[in-house]
Amino acid sequence: MKLRLLAVGQKMPQWVEQGFGEYAKRLPSDCSIELVEIAPGHRGKNTSKDKAMQQEADALRKAIRPQDHVVALDVKGASWTTAQLASQLENWRMQGGDIALLVGGPDGMTPEVLALARQRWSLSALTLPHPLVRVLVAEQLYRAWSILQGHPYHK
After folding, report:
1. CATH code (residue 149)
2. Of 6, 5, 73, nearest to 39 (Cα)?
3. What would the mean pLDDT of 21-28 be, rounded to a whole number?
4. How far apart are CA 39 and CA 31, in angstroms?
């Protein structure tokens, strides 16, 4: 199984790349995570937010592969404990396919993109900065994997 984090946004600070990279390298090849950066839609004085969101939606749809199990990170999604995430990770591994985790842009995701998701996952009721979400997702997936392996990291 390969985890693919499809995240709107580019040119992240170095600490984001380092943080994500640290947890990505800890995961084994049979549960690896890859970051796919999606260019944000153009936002300007004369551009509507809806047009920018549609650009992001088109790019996200292109990045999703037909066999992917799509999980949208959405504030209205299910809030999982770390143990529940470990259970989800095990279920995803048993399905045998790859997982596409979607992170929208500053205005979220269009209803059409959300409709592609088989699951919706809420990291928090708080609004989190998009760069931090990348690191947090990678760390939590590593933590969930460590639980499944009986590794002491989670303790």
Report:
1. 3.40.1280.10
2. 6
3. 97
4. 26
pLDDT at residue number 30: 93
Write down the pLDDT at residue 154.
Answer: 59
- Asked whether the predicted pLDDT for residue 43 surpasses 90, the reply is no
**Among 79, 72, 57, which residue's Cα sits nearest to residue 126?**
79
For the cut 80, the answer to whether the pLDDT of residue 25 exceeds it is yes
Bridge partners of 34, per DSSP, are 4
CA distance 147 to 130: 26
Closest CA to 31 of 103, 87, 99: 99
> Residues 50, 93: contact at Cβ < 8 Å?
no
Contact indicator for 15, 111 with CB cutoff of 8 Å = no
| Total number of domains in the chain | 1
| Residue 29: Cβ-neighbour burial (10 angstroms; 0-12, 13-18, 19+) | exposed
CB 122 within 8 A of CB 75: yes
pLDDT at 155 (0 to 100):
63
- Residues with Cβ within 8 Å of 84's Cβ and at least 6 positions away in sequence, in order, are none
Q: Tell me the residue range of the domain where 37 lies.
A: 2-154
